[in-house]
Amino acid sequence: METPLQLELHGVKSSDYLNELIQTNLAKIEKRFGRATACRVVVHAPNTHHQSGAPFEVSIRIALPAKKEINVNHTPGQDDRLTDLTAAVNAAFKRALRQLADEAQLMQGRVKHHPTGEAEA
């Protein structure tokens, strides 16, 4: 990355474990897609006034060359797996990897284009 990771935590205490988890996932992205220029990760903890476990919200923005961006802004429904911070971070980065793979295929021209005109008679 050309710029250092920007990490924002809302309602979550910073820890070595969380920083290492995010850096590990970011290293996977850099290994597969080395052209990423910047990354911003925002983690929101669920509201503390709920009795039941609510899911964490993890947003990721990855800047690519040619002024393109990948945005993973997922506000999950009631998914019990995402009430765990580790699972929520891993799921967000997994979605980012999928979106980056799709974008890489578009940039390389490996996407099948369907004709949009009327059928020839």
Give structural notes.
The protein is of the alpha+beta class and 121 residues long. Helix content is 34%, strand content 22%. The chain has helices spanning 16-32, 85-108; strands at residues 6-10, 38-44, 57-64, 68-74. The chain has a four-stranded mixed beta sheet, with helices on one face. Strand 3 (57-64) and strand 4 form a beta hairpin. The chain is globular and about 55 Å long.
Helix content: 25-40%
Instruction: Give the overall pLDDT as a whole number.
Output: 82
Number of helices: 2
What is the N-to-C succession of helices and strands? EHEEEH
Major sheet details = 4 strands, mixed
Beta-strand percentage range:
15-25%
Task: Note the gap between the termini.
Answer: 52 Å
Coarse structural class: alpha+beta
Strand line-up of the largest beta sheet: 1-2-3-4
Rg estimate, integer Å: 18 Å
Low-confidence blocks of residues: none
Q: Which geometry do the CA atoms define?
A: globular
How many strand segments?
Answer: 4
What is this structure's SSE topology?
Elements lengths: L5 E5 L5 H17 L5 E7 L12 E8 L3 E7 L10 H24 L13
Helix pairs in contact: 1-2
At a glance:
With 121 residues, the protein is of the alpha+beta class.
